[in-house]
């Protein structure tokens, strides 16, 4: 947890941006797995963490702008809680740690909100993503879940504030990235032919846990890297495969790292793997070089796509003019997703607030239709203080080839005859995390090995 | 997954018990952690698994008794899903594996239910525990979540059927218990002074994962065993402490094991630990000896409580007549919870259906007021085919001592002067899993070491 004044200052800065009404921040609950009291590991809502810092289930933070009050609503422990979960800090002691002097029983929240509604005051809230909070808002506001209207002014104010990371946040993200790099080195040490993908997942999870970290998201550790969010982990590694590892740690106070590496199960890449790996690496370095305030991330994305096309043309998988190929979205045969996203308290930072507010601007709205661009989470001009990922890749998806080839889609740009020879190639992604600085950018965390030579010589020590 | 006919037979048996209407079984969704697409590991609802077997998110199983139809509602994969999550089996192929021939898009469910409501037909459903399913039912039935009335006839029929385990279920539970015993042996191998509790949790989790199992519940691994559901894992083990490990595996198709052992961090128990450990072991063995069809588990609970009191009297912590002490609930100074619970697809089997239906009968309802008995999840007469845990313990809770001593509560039975000397003792629990057989009972899984001599000689090999 940061200092008390951190949270006070953040709330003060927010209050200065909203003219009136009540700001309602719903904390998360402990979510049931298969019955109410068998629950998933608790994770506090990130915006609640940002303004109220307490990783305690079932709290609600309220800022009453009209009456100049801050209140944390919650539940005091009973004697039964003592028996089942041990002595608990009181709600008021907890609140004091984040500079909130007023607390109230959660059971009195409905009355508080009801009174404000009766006074025709605005209740600002953020888009709920957990069903429990949809239900709670629905009850508090006496609306059906589909009627709930999150506050766009609150969303914009929160997104703007959380987008610019404080120095202490950057330091915490660097800690998350540092643990993440060690998780990746561990996979490069352990992976060997005959091993199951899940063994690497389990090792990474235990390692993160032993560093007092959680996993920021379900790791993707797969020999089928062409499946972007592959959660199948039952394949057996064999020589000739590459392992794509997309894994990041989350620190105890909730900040994420998000790194991807792709390495051969054998001691060395084969020549095709080497060729395509180098293209992805070139795209990463080329994109990185463009990172600086004022540059739109959409242009960085398209620049990376062009580098990918140039490389793919050089190896005969694409043809024609690279610029034109990218303008026609033909690179999405190989690169179907976005180049990166903001990162912070969430691995996709503030994705719950809506990408149109977080990653785009009113003047440059998100393209929600075009295959490829509709998956680009960040498109707006970069600002100093942004933390983001850059993650180009080449993904050869047999079903997508069949689907598009059947209609000659992109046949001016894609060399289908050559591509057929690669249909079982798999996928490669490389991902690093950066801070945008006034001068340009800074790599976050230690520099995790990524050149072909470095990866091969590291692997050679363990294979 | 079991054979197709398993699921067909289970559904047929259920249909024979309900006279008419529609039976609605809501599968679970992937629950968001901190935004919609960052989700916890998927766990299917247990009743859905029991009747429809498919561990796939966002399915609904429907049995229309009036029209003699079985339908699985779900969503077919799109080309986008292919890119993000790889090729998926079709809904109809999935349904065929559990003997259901009709499938429909989830978007058509509301219409189906709406038509049935218009026909004044009964929609039977079970109590929803995940908020997403409360919302879904609320929408389907056009009722507020608090208006929803689960079907008592369906609850009773499901509880009766799921309570009596099939041979193949018992075999699967034995597999879960077998992995659980290995998890426990691992903790006894690894634990040493200076280690953090969480390191044992992480090791156990990775081990279970490498056996293709999940954890059936968040493990309790603590030097403060007196806190019944302790989830703090930041303490450092030191000589003189005992480690209480309550951990169980869940097999790939969802069956749980649930074992507890308590062992010394040093190579041997000290004399007080030894004394109280033996009392708990005596209670476990005494309770076990009573397990047979027709015996109420409440009487087994009270019998175990009496053995605990006898032992505590022998060491000077209690006084007066043990029988009378138990009748007055004075044992709850040391044993605040219930002796055990049913186990199966849930570690607390069918807890979501309601303990009054699952663990009790209409004639012998649950005591929901009395401290101690209100935490006894199973009270009804045992039947052959039940699988359950037996888990006596002694928990010395300083705050509870202070609370009760202040009002002289149980001062006829509790020797507070002596108890004060034990206030930092901690807690001991021992837990095994049993099948009720026509003749009596059978221990499930391998016999995990539990005598003082066996535990000490095992620990001596690793300390």
TrEMBL record, chains A, B:
Pfam families given in the database record: AMP_N, Peptidase_M24
Gene3D superfamilies tied to this protein: Creatinase/methionine aminopeptidase superfamily, Creatinase/prolidase N-terminal domain
Segments crossing the lipid bilayer: 48-65
Family matches, as InterPro entries: Aminopep_P_N, Creatin/AminoP/Spt16_N, Creatinase/aminopeptidase-like, Pept_M24, X-Pro_dipept-like
CDD domains: Prolidase
Residue intervals of the Aminopeptidase P N-terminal domain: 2-134
EC number: 3.4.11.9
Coiled coil, from the record: none
Stated family: Belongs to the peptidase M24B family.
Protein name: Xaa-Pro aminopeptidase
Organism: Sphingobacterium corticibacter
